[in-house]
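Q: What would this chain look like folded?
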Amino acid sequence: MHIGELRAQIALGEDSRRQFKRDVTNVDALAAEMAAFANAEGGVIYLGVDDDGALPGLSRADVARINQLIGNAAAQHIRSPLTVQTENLEVDNGRLVIALTVPKGIDKPYFDRNGVIWLKSGADKRRVNSKEELRRLFQSVDQFHADELPTKAGIDKLDKLRFRDFLRDVYQQEFPDADAARLTLLQNMNLATDGGMLNLAGVLLFAERPEWIKPQFVVKAIRYPGNAIHVSEYLDSEDFAGPLPQMFAGAMSFVMRNLHKVQAGQGVNAPGTPEIPPAVFEELLVNALAHRDYLINAPIRLFVFDNRIEIISPGPLPNNLTVAKIRAGNSIIRNPILVSYIAKGLLPYRGLGSGIKRALDDWPAIDFDDDRDGNLFTATVHRKDPPSSQIADPGSEKSSEKSSEKLLEMLKANPGLTARELANVLGITQRAVEKQISKLRQANRIRRIGPDKGGYWEVIA
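A: My prediction, written as structure tokens:
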């Protein structure tokens, strides 16, 4: 590195990969800084640089002293020892700056001499202060996985019919009648702990009511009007719980009923083709359920807007995985037990790393956002606005009038019906029902009493 490159780096300021220090005299404080970098993505500490970017530099005596501190900190004050690099750069008046490069650790977590684990927090550092953070750190180096965590559910919470069918269909094995034999089998299958409780994978795959045990691990789906999130206004909303296959089926159904159906030359009685291939959402929803971070107690969120559909998973991409890498077909398994059973046919899983590529092949208009600060990963599927003549709504003014009259009759009999319920009875899309409701309101034929959720329709004579 020459002086011009040094000035360019300093001009960028401090962040999670760069830190400035005018001087160091405390070996333990230096060791804590180095451990924090090693527990993150690595970085460079510039010694002889003020916080504001000024370059007072170091004397040659200071450099000799600090290099001794660096060696002691890396070898004796950090566990496990670190291999670091230093480079001396000359600045004005013959003074020097030390560029201390700390690599990303390969033996995480790193402790200081007092047993404290330090993490980077932006340009600063902080102690690990929760079991969840410690677990996530071990998870990042493949020493721990969330799906093997013990739960408070005994094997009596098992859905016996679901587990029996799985054993029969996949392993051609009979369901054990005795509790002891059943527990031994679950332990051998990595679905129960040595202490006799179901682990997280066992709960999410085969428990009778997983949401009673882990209430946050569900899918929350909302269809908003327009292209922005509303505080209270929505067109469709549902929570999907149960074992992973049940959550997947419910979320897929929600997406399909909120997509446009394009006739594309089919007859008026044909159901139409979804505007986006269903395989796209199969891949993205399986990816969300299999690879989300189950150390974060939050649901998967599924938002449908007029111009896009968002699938928001708790947890950013694991380890050094990036959006570019997943687009190229790379993958890292965050929940290996779950993935191993999903691959046995519980969900439409077709192979490690290939799901995102298949979704992009079927529908290239997908963006991915890896939000490491917010602990979220979002897949955004952009919708195209088909010509209204191609949308498989009622095909004529006469049929539309008939549907409107039928809709009015239904609302007279049951004012609390939702648009989705009306669509199911009328045999048309929810979008078509919403259009008719809008026209009827404009014509002063109906009015809404109360809020969207909990209110009802009044038919005006």
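The first strand starts at residue 18 and ends at 21.
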